[in-house]
Amino acid sequence: MSLRILAAMSGGVDSAVAAARAAEAGHDVTGVHLALSSNPQSFRTGARGCCTLEDSRDARRAADVIGIPFYVWDLADRFREDVIDDFVAEYAAGRTPNPCLRCNEKIKFAALLDKAIALGFDAVCTGHYARIIDGELHRAVDPAKDQSYVLGVLDAEQLAHSYFPLGDTTKDGIRAEAERRGLAVARKPDSHDICFIADGDTQGFLERRLGKTPGEIVDVDGTVLGEHTGAYGFTIGQRKGLRIGRPAPDGKPRYVLDISPVNNTVTVGPVEALDVTGLTGINSRWCGGTPPIGTARYTAQLRAHGEDVPVTAEITADGGLSVRFDEPQRGIAPGQAVVLYDGTRVVGSATIATTERASVGV
């Protein structure tokens, strides 16, 4: 069945090949580039970002080669409100957000999809590495490129209008295919890190928006070890850049254990104090309808390129989520996302609200 498909084209190789595959499959495809920056740079900085004028032009050239109509849609205001402002607010509250999840939830599969449906399109096509099988979201076949984690915020209705043509292919295969199709972006570097922080300096970005807010860096017993210029400049599990003048008594490195926006304090301690045995989640979003209420076994992914770890999860009738790990995990911070899997199938995701530490008193 031929569909009317809106292909989101970032200017990279993945979205270009996805659009080409959709068109080759006989669908009526229109390409669209999302202008997400109010003041886009002319050129990328290395491999960072995906919102420059250069990217827009690359997307247009790819659409011309494919032979599909192409438009640029300005979603800069929506992106600023739903992604950038949320990112800053989360850091100010002592949490560690994932802006890619928020962008997928609020921009690509809310603002864009809603507009596409209103205009009569059947689905939105993207270059994400994931698969939809019988209406359910699954991991891509290439574990190194699987992006199902950042799509775990999609609900069943959104999945019904989503099209991911790349989930059965490796990245090397996609680049080779782009060359065969004559797409100039075949060897273009992937974008990475945070697209709206082109220089990669997250702390500098936050400082410009939140200002300097000096506070103390303390040990687990409350001993003051140093000072900082903003608690938002730290993440749980961080080791480098702590600027602590006094070494630990055992000579071992210290890690960020806690960030308190209430008293503007950063707590540091030994690496074993990072061990987390469980967590609670809020704002749950289920990919195929609400899973069975109660306790069940799943695997969980805690970061975009993290490992799949076995867990026992309890889902409550009000959408609450509690997760217990078979083995303690490290570097887990409130504000991040936990995504549950049943085999390769994505069950859903939640925002981490609290964590339970193995070490008492941390």
TrEMBL record:
It is found in: Cytoplasm. Keywords: ATP-binding, Cytoplasm, Disulfide bond, Nucleotide-binding, RNA-binding, Transferase, tRNA processing, tRNA-binding. GO terms for molecular function: tRNA-uridine 2-sulfurtransferase activity. It comes from the Bacteria. Residues 278-352 form the tRNA-specific 2-thiouridylase MnmA-like C-terminal domain. PANTHER family: MITOCHONDRIAL TRNA-SPECIFIC 2-THIOURIDYLASE 1, TRNA 5-METHYLAMINOMETHYL-2-THIOURIDYLATE -METHYLTRANSFERASE. This is tRNA-specific 2-thiouridylase MnmA.
